[in-house]
Every structure is written in structure tokens, then in C-alpha cells.
């Protein structure tokens, strides 16, 4: 999917992959050979050969906690045309959801992924709903072709941190 | 040492009354469950286990996942057998119970004991299996009891649907001589995917494999090597002494088996005291030791009654210092026996008096920690002592070697 658009990070936003708390990341219904890291981790997600794949059926439930509180602005979700995700629901600050209670709460945002999105165009989220996010739950309900297997190439999240410290700019001070 | 929350589904349906697994299917199942709970809680102290019943009036959770082994074992008491097993409802309730576990970091596992026929079809079971896999719940199935057409295949299909990277297993246990728990110990259900729990399983296997009787002296050399060694050495020493005594007795021709008896019982006392001071206080172990001592005592007495006993006095001398330190009464007895051999027939009467004093002898025996004065073999021995001392007095002048009236 290395084509067109994408990579144009909205102004002022940063890629939140640095702020993900990897110890708490969970994904339900993934195949062991195609786990979530393939779609989320830097390096893996840009590798066309690696993708996230669903197992028993086409749904996926991804739980991403963050190391600090962030505001979520937009997201990039790419995947193949047929098996890429179609309906995606996002829940902010809901821990340990399961497939059984995923429909009990109204989502913070509900996305319909278009083919352009699948090619890399960012999806703008309802920014007001994501002002104070500690963890994000991504529920992929079905895919484009309504098949049994959903494949996701890349999931990238963009936003800002609540405190304005940009951790990358923080240099270690040798002498005071 | 996987951090795991487990729900165990018990089959308490009518089919569990059958006795093809001893003592009954239900009891074999209960034993296996006890072992599993122990293994799980031991392999990782943060593991939790819960139990529910699938038959009876309906699916009922007896205890929600907890790490308190006592609570788990207690809830298994007084379960009623009856009704029909509802497999799908049982699995679903187990899944729900696991979902609400306190520590979300624990992996979820369900262990199902399926002893009665399964009325659901393969498709339903596979759907349930997929649902479990989707929610990353592992499943172990123990197929025992009834084996109607299709039951093994249905359960295999169920486990295959759940299986994700070899985390789910199924074990078929046909009825046979070995207990259900013994068969399960060697399966991955116990050993937990190849790691952890194996220490407990090995110990359980050792205990199960005939308990104490598998080892000499009722002590497992793996658990307590020093005790096993001490017992073995003292046993060998005793045998050597007895053989030497027998040889010398056969060579020489005189004397009092009383002295010999006293001496050899002092040898036994020395040995048994040494044994008992080092013995761990376990009830059945103690019983074993008592039986061993009684056997040894009888053995020693038999040997000493065969021949003359001035020889065994030498051995008694060697032991005397040991015995003296441990038991003043014994020392007194030994002193007397030594004095007697120095003298002649007069000593016989004194010795007989000593032994006649039933209470004295009993008190000696009572002071020996491992000896049970109510032991029938001991009582026979005491009775025979009485008989002997009387005969000795009659045959005072004869210096007979015999006297072994029993």
C-alpha cells in the first residue's frame, strides 16, 4: 500500500505509537501467526508482508492503553481491498471489553472505512470525544467483502499529548 | 508457571453412580479434581480455580475462581448426584465466571469432565468452541464414563475448534484398574502445557504409586534421604549383630536366654530409639516403624531363644553405653544382666524376678517411643517371658539352653 497520500501527518499532531503502553496491549480473535504487532508496531506496520488477521470470525477487538493521557485526532487504517475493515467502532477509556459487551456501550466514534482510507487516507475522528484518552478500544466489526477473515495492514493513531512535553525533544541534560 | 484462572466443570449427573471407575465414577472424578486444584494453585500462587456443577437442578457455580485451596476442596463436599449434564450451559457459565475474574492478567481456562452422554450435535459444540477461541479461553476435556456413539468425536471437534496454538487438550480415559487421577497426572492437563506443575505432579505420582509400600522402611529416599539411610544402616547393623549372636550361640552351650533376651532387646531398644529420634512424625510412617520394630523384636527374641546367651552379653556391653544414656531403667536392666552373667545360677532367679515384674518390663517398653505396648506380638512376648521365668525357676539347677516355651 505504499502509494499516494498518507504519511502527511496533520499539522500539530504526532504519531502516538511512541506513547503506547505495550505491556497492556491486547487483541482478541487474532491468529497467532498474524498478531496485532504486525499492524501497530513501527517497522512492522509498514512491511507489506506482515498484517493482522482475524481467526475464528471476522471481528477483532483491539485494546491499546497509553503511557500517558492523550488527545486523539485522527487515525490511519489500511488493509487489502476485500478483507480490509469496514465498520470500526472506537471506545475511549473502556477497559477489558469483550465481544459480548461491545454492543452494550455507545461507541465514542463509529467509522466507516472507505477504500481511500484503506489506501492510507487518514480518518478524522470526533476530536471532542477523545480529549482525555488513557486507553483506546478498537472494535472491527466486519470487513469490506463481508468475508470470514479480516486483514489489517496498518493502524496508526495521531494526536497530541495532554501535557505539552514532546518526549522526543527532551534531551538528557548532562550538566546543570 | 502460567498465570491462569481455571473453571472446573463437574459432571454430577445420574451416570456418575456407576462403579466402573473405583470406587464410583463420581468419587474418581472428585479425586482427580482435588489433585488438579492442588496442582494449579501450587504451580503459581496467584492462580485461581473455581468449580461449578453441570447437572443436578441446573448449572450452579459452587465457588468462583479463588486461590484458597481449602475453600475449593470444601465446596466439593455433599454434592448430590442426579439429573442430566448440560454441557453447553456449563461451558457458557464457566466462560462468564472467568470473564469476571479479579485479575485480568490471568489466562482463562475451562476444564470439563464429561462422563455422561452428550446430547448436543457437533455443530453446536463447534460453535461454542469458536466462541471460546474468539475470547481466548482454553479448554481441557476429560472424556470418561459413558462412551456412546460419537461422544469422543464430538468432544474432539469441540477441542479442535477451541485449540489455539496447542493450548487445549482432550484426554480419553477408559474404565480400568488404574484410578482416574493416576491417568490424568501424566497428561498435559496436569503438566500444564509442558511446563510448571511437573514438580507437584511428580510428587503426587510418587505418593499415588503405592504410597509408602513402594519404598523400604516407609520412607521415600527422595523426600528424606538421611532418614532412609539411617534406617537402612541400623537395619543392617541389627542383622549383623543377630548373625554374630547366632553364630556364637551355636558355638557355645550355656546359659540364660533371659540374659540374651534382655541384651538383644536392649539392642533393639538402642536401635529403635535411634530410629525413632530421627523419624518424622507421620502417622502411617509411625505405624510402619512400629510394625518393623515388632517384627525385629520377635526376630531377635527367636534368635536369642535358640542358643545360649553369654555371648550376647558381650554385644550388650557394646550397646550398654548407648542405652544407658537414653534410658536409666534400661541401664538398670543391663546392669543386672551383666551382674548375672558374672555370677551363676543365683543370677537366674534375680533375672527371672526382674522379668517377672511385669510392670517393670511394661514400663521399659512404654519408655521406648516407638513401641506400642498394646501390640499383640509384644503381649505374647511378655506372656512368654512370664512362662519362661517360671520354668527357669523350676529348672534352676539345670542351666538349660532351651526355655523357649511360647
Category from helices, strands and their pairing of chain B = alpha/beta
Main sheet of chain B: which strands, in order across?
Answer: 3-2-1-4-5-6
Question: Roughly what fraction of the amino acids of chain A lie in strands?
Answer: 25-35%
**Secondary-structure element string of chain A:** EEHEEEEHEEEE
Helicity of chain A, in percent? under 10%
Separation of termini of chain A?
Answer: 47 Å
Shape of chain B: elongated
State the oligomer: heterodimer
Largest sheet of chain A: 8 strands, antiparallel
Low-pLDDT regions of chain A: 1-6
Number of helices of chain A: 2
- Based on DSSP secondary structure assignment, what is the total number of beta strands of chain A? 10
Q: Ends of chain B: how far apart?
A: 62 Å
Rg of chain A over CA atoms, rounded to whole Å, is 16 Å
Biased composition (Polar residues) (chain B): 262-276, 336-351
GO biological process, one term (chain B): proteasome-mediated ubiquitin-dependent protein catabolic process
Keywords (chain B): Proteasome, Repeat
InterPro entries (chain B): PSMD4, PSMD4_RAZUL-like, UIM_dom, VWF_A, vWFA_dom_sf
